Amino acid sequence: MSKKVSILVGSLRKGSFARKTAQNVIPMFPADYEAKIVEIGGLPLYSFDYDDPNETDCPVPESYTQFRETIKASAGVLFVTAENNRTVPACLKNAIDIGSKPNADVAWKNVPAGIISHSVGKMGGYSAHKNLRLALSYFDMPLTGQPEIFLGNSPTMFDEEGKLVESARKFVQSYIEQLVALIEKNPK
Questions:
Q1: How far apart are alpha carbons 61 and 38 in whole angstroms?
Q2: pLDDT score, position 125
Q3: Do 103 and 175 belong to one domain?
Q4: Domain count, the chain
Q5: Which spans of this chain does the record mark as coiled coil (predicted)?
Q6: Residues 6+ apart with CB under 8 A from 158
Q7: Are 95 and 170 part of one and the same domain?
């Protein structure tokens, strides 16, 4: 039985560098892993009314339930994100909030996770990466340590076919190996 890894892309644009990075990462996982992008763009904005038992006219959207179950069934999660205005993109923060409820059944709890951030500038999404790491630490998620991945000047990280250039590919591959080791060390 393969171990499922959910990849959440912090960009909704089809041709985004975050999505290209995620697509390049999928084949880097071992053969007994099934890594795939979990789409988050269609998730309604989070409102606690959905999870408030006193609110009877706000049923939990089916997309919330499916998303939460997907995360809970994952052996690990990989966040691949851009940086928007020096923080986490809204779509990714929304997904994190959705997975954080209900309080008695948090989808993120104890799920091993890794983060790859990028930006078109030199900082490589540093602020988004650190904000995301801070948010995830609240859920007792085992997180990868060093090295952290900040892909600066992300347009230069891809060749004409959309593949990671060799130097970036090797670095990202070593990070995926680190994430796999974390997942193996923290089975669910």
A1: 17
A2: 85
A3: no
A4: 2
A5: none
A6: 17, 20, 164, 165
A7: no
Measure the CA–CA gap between 96 and 123, rounded to whole angstroms: 23
138 and 103 together in one domain: no
Domain CATH for 180: 3.40.50.360
DSSP 84-147: BTTB--HHHHHHHHHHT-SGGG-TTTT--EEEEEE-SSTTTTHHHHHHHHHHHHTTT--B--SS
Per-residue pLDDT of the chain (188 residues; tens, 9 = 90+): 799 999 999 999 988 999 999 999 999 999 999 999 999 999 999 999 999 999 989 999 999 999 999 999 999 999 999 988 888 999 999 999 999 999 899 999 999 999 999 988 887 788 999 999 999 989 999 999 888 889 888 889 999 999 999 999 999 999 999 999 999 999 98
Is the backbone peptide bond immediately before 61 cis, with ω within 30 degrees of 0?
Answer: no
Reference 150, options 115, 124, 174, 183; nearest CA is 124
In the numeric block, which tokens belong to residue 132? 């995301």
What are the structure tokens assigned to 183, written together?
A: 């997942």
* 78 part of a folded domain: no
Asked, for residue 29, whether it belongs to a domain, the answer is: no
Residue type, 139: F
The two beta strands, 3-10 and 76-81, are parallel
7, 57 Cβ separation under 8 angstroms: no
